[in-house]
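Problem 12. The chain below contains 384 residues. Write out its predicted structure in token notation.
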Amino acid sequence: MKFESNYRELESQYIMPAFSREIMITKGSGCTVTDADGKQYLDLVAGIAVCSTGHCHPKVVKAITDQAAELIHCSNLYYVPHQGTLAKKLVEISGFPGKAKAFFSNSGAEAMEGALKLARIRTGKKEFVACEGGFHGRTMGSLACTHKPAIRDPFMPLEPYTKFVPYGDAEAVKAAITPETAAVVLEPVQGEGGVIIPPAGYLKQVRDICDEKGVLLIVDEVQSGMGRTGHWFAFQQDGITPDIITIAKAIASGFPMGAIVAREGLEFGKSEHGSTFAGGPIACAAALASIEVIEELLPDVAGKGERFRAAFAHLNPRVKGLMIGITIGDHCADVQKECAANGLLVNCAAHGNLRLVPPLTITNAEIDRATGIINAAVSKFART
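Solution.
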């Protein structure tokens, strides 16, 4: 399939210009994608931490196609194939004690919407505390807890009311909590912020503060979850249990899906929440297959992250498993383009930070190739 000469004109005329893009990806396998002109790239974007099992993993493809041949959609008015099995698995891998439960959605933003609604209805409180640099989605509720002014300000005023505090500052969280605070919302690693890792002990301090103040803790694992950091969820490295976690991105290897898991005693009653497509048969089948694959990959994630760390030691990288951030500064976009020209896809997140979130299937040889291209690109623009 050649990149049609008039394709940009078609997009310009018929698609709202919300995205900036230059490459049309038409095919993917493992850590490699191919564009419409036949050029191949090693993909360290992975759909922004979505394709953790690699592109078109055979087990995931089989699960999707087998289910599509049986039943594509079933309303949540009825029992949905695989839904109960998947909910059980998510509760198990999250490690929540007692009788935790899941609720499905179609995306990370919808998962956050569900978490905010659940926090409000069960606490009877209306306000939230979130972190500067945090990103939780673009729907109106999730955007209310997202700090980035460029995407927030045009839609003000936003609900629910959210007070923002510096990320990594537990005392600031404590000071921001009022009698009207329903929950504290944070990422264990800020992905869109540029792979920002908080100080050691931060999550434990915030957990203790929430317990002391009687507010819920919502941990956004949309980008950091599903094995990305070397654990099923990043909060598990800190030895805490949130009240609610949000999950999406890698949960179904690219098939649209999200979920929340909430501790025992936190659940929606009948008609308090719902969704037409959430937890559909194909999504659940894809998620179960993805979990099976990730389970096999999980033991090697930390070691692969350390291989990246060693290759980038001179650049002071921030590494949590296969979530890697490097501060490039004003030349981040230049480095990104240089890498693409040399067959490597990388992504610039906020504040000139290069974000690398490759498939968990990436091999040592692919890591070495990728780090070589990035180091050469950084070196080139360091001289300009």
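Discussion. The first helix runs from residue 7 to 14. Students who got a different answer should revisit the alignment rule from Section 12.3.
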